[in-house]
Amino acid sequence: MLDSLWPNTAALHLYDLAATDERQRLERYKRAWNAYHGRLPDPLKVKPGQPNDNVQASKCRVIVDSAVAYLFGQNVEFEVSDQEDTPEEEWLDAVWDANRKMTLLSKLAVNGAVCGHTFLKIVPNHPTTAPYPRLIVLDPATVSCTWDDDDIEMVREYRIQWNAIDPQTRKPVVKRQVVTRQDNGLWLIRDFQSLPQHYTRWVLVGEETWRYAWPPILDCQNIPVPNEFWGEADIPDDIINLTQSRNFALSNWARIVKYQAHQRLWGKGFRDNQVKLGVDDIFIIESDAGQLASIEPTSNMAGLSDLDRRLDEAIHEGSRTPAIATGKVEGVGQLSGVALQILYGPLVQKTEAKRQTYGDMLRALNRHLLELGGYAAADVSITWPEILPQDMQAERAALQVDTTLGVVSKATVAQKLG
Q1: What is the spatial distance between Cα 313 and Cα 327, in angstroms, rounded to a whole number?
Q2: Looking at residue 15, what is its pLDDT?
Q3: Pick from 71, 72, 147: nearest CA to 103
Q4: What is the residue-wise DSSP string for 70-101?
Q5: How far, in Å, CA of 92 to CA of 101, rounded?
Q6: b or e along 111-120 (b: 16 or more beta carbons within 10 Å of the residue's beta carbon)?
Q7: Dist CA 205 CA 175 (whole Å)
Q8: Residue 343 class from Cβ within 10 Å (0-12 exposed, 13-18 middle, 19+ buried)?
């Protein structure tokens, strides 16, 4: 009897774990987006009728935007072959132009930097980009995945679910699209819609078999994480926790300054109307026993400043985003190339890791786009821009030396200089 109950009990337990993991993932996404938009909870309570002393100094947006700028801030080139102006490259360029390449890639990278994973959907013959395919950046919070038990990188099913308004009834509905890999290797796309007022009951409204061996949805990790399907964000929980701690310290600092920045006087042995403290008044106390003194601030302002600095450094170190990469150049003089490499080292390492994950997805995407255009699927190379800021004078001098020695051609020099 116990043996017959065990499979059902184990299955229910696995379902509960999967539901818990999915709920926690969505909660992480919501918290990360709130941190990105500067909507973290206020660290200090605000009494009714009192001013709000809370300080929101989140650097999460700066961290994310800097990571996106160093990944897709400059144009990324795709090349099908060594020859220029081939039909394949012209088709590929036209597809990306129709989909506003760099804007789309930036949105893709923002989703990845905030959520840790990013998704892209291919829609052939979309009316807004026809005759070229439409590329849609999906909200990671609307996508859930099922993968093979023995290979987490092999997705068996993509499920997209979002809220919408029925155009006919003008009532809210929930839509769902399920893309499932079949035993024959093809993908089945099924569209569902919830019944009015019954959001847990689904009606099949459309079904088609995707005629390619690859799915219409591509995904990748933002920062590689082994043994996990979901990637790591640029603002994980530890960075958000540090941000909240810094907000708490700054809020307390602001409240201390509010009440102790100006001189507070106290007196005894006289009435308040016996002393004049105006700027143009003569200072008189009409009592021999009177005494007037000030309250000295007891807070350690230097200690608070040091705490803020240490928390700020921890945020930059934990996110691998040097302060200089966000525009902070106080105390930084003329830097050599070696010094720049050391300062930008963590950001360069993170960007290189992201180029691997996003690069794999973009190469696969370009192969699929060529196949949609009727061309043979070919490997597409990606030319990434330089990560580190360049000293143009030093770079031109080095290129001149290389040209003189015959190491590079004039065409290569012209390409490097744009």
Answers
A1: 14
A2: 72
A3: 72
A4: HHHSS--EEESSSSSS-HHHHHHHHHHHHTTH
A5: 11
A6: bbbbbbbbbb
A7: 10
A8: middle
Residues 6 or more apart from 413 whose CB is under 8 A from it?
Answer: 399, 402, 403
Q: Which helix (H) or strand (E) holds 396?
A: helix 392-405
In the 8-state DSSP scheme, what is residue 323? G
Q: How many CB atoms lie within 10 A of CB 127?
A: 7
Using one digit for the tens of pLDDT, what is the confidence trace for 174-226?
999 999 999 988 999 999 998 766 667 889 999 999 989 999 999 999 999 99
- Rounded Cα distance between 193 and 398, Å, is 62
* d(C-alpha 152, C-alpha 224), whole Å: 13
Query: By C-alpha distance, which of 244, 218, 221 is closest to 32?
Result: 244
In this model, does residue 162 exceed pLDDT 70?
Answer: yes
Q: What are phi and psi of 263, to 5 degrees?
A: -70, 130
How many Å apart are CA 392 and CA 417, to the nearest integer?
9
CA distances from 190 to 179, 211, 332, 338 (A): 7, 14, 57, 55
CB atoms within 10 A of CB 184: 9
Q: Is the bond preceding residue 385 a cis peptide, omega within 30 degrees? A: no
Reported residue count of the chain is 418
Q: What is the pTM of this model?
A: 0.82
Q: Any residues with CB less than 8 A from the CB of 166 and at least 6 apart, and which?
A: 172, 173, 196
- The token pair at 112 is 């990845």
The amino acid sitting at 338 is V
